[in-house]
């Protein structure tokens, strides 16, 4: 563990937003980035290098049920495996714990390159041009292609989990706390924040693949255009109904092929939805007397959005296929879109007790 490194002997402890941080003294001037159920993130100055970093404290990863330790392990292993420069994925710079022994080991910290603002905050204050939307979605897909090539599914893509440099629009995919290596086994049922959650999570519980993430990209693309979430369901039934109202109800054959019998029967019991006109919702909008669009995307962008938001995941493009869509002409360069070796994780589906996870981590 990092704590036994003889170079690291000085720590300082402080409270920030009701969370206690104990970190090396080289990191100073904390400001809040955000906090969730499993981690708290602050921005600090690394006085050794002079650069700004983000430090994530894992909140009680060894509490109660072993699933929390498993999530902490998965996040660490994914970040260690995806250290590729200029890949639009959070770059891990260091890992440390102030705990001095395995018995004391209660948490650890991830030091990452600062990713700027969250995309959710950026959307609130900026009306994006099509060129900016194109650059942002291309960058996210480029990072996703790298992760998927290693068989890593993010499982919680949303604007608040994406960083953006407001000056350059450089994008960084963040928070791999729910990520996992893809498996032929039954997957964890809890994935994604609801508004960006793919319909197959409901349609075929615990059976999904990396196209789970490309649905989320479609939700983000729509959100960049209209500057608000496009399917803000109040609960999982309301969310499913909103999805069907937006994209239309699939035919009975498709439903019976991709849904469990119970879900297929439920959807068929609802009023069939024709779906909304995507060009009207997301296509170019013009101010009176202005020949240049003031918002929206081209027909190519609308077409990509339609494909990403396919209810049938079999018809939805992969990240690599989406990158090759005509919407990204002038951006797409296969040789400049890195891929990774497949990660083989012997522990990811293990059911170890907490003490075993502590030793592995």
Any key phrases for this structure?
Transferase(Phosphotransferase), domain 1, 361 residues, globular, 14 strands, single chain, alpha+beta
User: What is the CATH-assigned architecture of the domain at 117-336?
Assistant: Orthogonal Bundle
**Number of beta-strand segments:** 14
Q: For the report, how would you describe the main beta sheet? A: 5 strands, antiparallel
How many angstroms does the end-to-end distance come to?
9 Å
Helix content: 25-40%
Binding site for ATP: 57
Protein name: Protein kinase domain-containing protein
Pfam family, one: Pkinase
Organism: Adineta ricciae
Explain the layout of strands and helices.
Elements: E1 11-16, E2 19-24, E3 27-35, E4 39-46, E5 52-58, H1 66-81, E6 92-96, E7 109-113, E8 117-118, H2 119-125, H3 130-149, E9 152-153, E10 162-164, E11 171-173, E12 180-181, H4 200-203, H5 211-226, H6 236-247, H7 252-258, H8 261-269, H9 278-282, E13 285-286, E14 293-295, H10 299-308, H11 319-323, H12 354-360
Antiparallel strand pairs: 1-2, 3-4, 4-5, 5-7, 6-7, 8-10, 9-12, 10-11, 13-14
Helix pairs in contact: 1-12, 3-5, 5-10, 7-8
Structure description:
It is a single chain. The protein is an alpha+beta fold and 361 residues long. It has a domain at 117-336: Transferase(Phosphotransferase) domain 1 (Transferase(Phosphotransferase), domain 1). It contains 12 helices and 14 strands. The protein has helices spanning 66-81, 119-125, 130-149, 200-203, 211-226, 236-247, 252-258, 261-269, 278-282, 299-308, 319-323, 354-360, and strands spanning 11-16, 19-24, 27-35, 39-46, 52-58, 92-96, 109-113, 117-118, 152-153, 162-164, 171-173, 180-181, 285-286, 293-295. The strands form 5 sheets. Strands 3-4-5-7-6 form a 5-stranded antiparallel β-sheet, covered by helices on one side. It has a 3-stranded antiparallel β-sheet with strand order 8-10-11. A hairpin with a 2-residue loop joins β1 and β2. The longest helix has 20 residues, at 130-149. The protein is globular. 38% of the residues are buried.
